Amino acid sequence: MECKNCQKQLAPSDKFCGNCGAKKISHRLTLKHIIS
């Protein structure tokens, strides 16, 4: 998986990016998720 902020590779067990500190986002919210 890749960091959405800095594009550095993340390990599956990482919760935050070790490079920039951004929280790992495993899935994106879509309008469909918000409405249902």
Describe the overall structure.
The chain is largely without helices or strands and 36 residues long. The termini are far apart. The chain has one domain. It is built from 1 helix and no strands. The protein is 14% helix and 0% strand.
Helices and strands, with pairings:
Elements (H helix, E strand, L loop, with lengths): L30 H5 L1
The number of helices is 1
Rg (C-alpha, Å): 12 Å
Low-confidence sequence ranges: none
Q: Please give the alpha-carbon distance between the first and last residues.
A: 27 Å
Helix content: 10-25%
Identify the quaternary structure here.
single chain
Overall shape: elongated
Order of helices and strands: H
**Biggest sheet details:** none
Structural class: little secondary structure
Domain module count: 1
Can you give the mean pLDDT? 88
How much of the sequence is in beta strands?
under 5%
In total, how many beta strands? Answer: 0
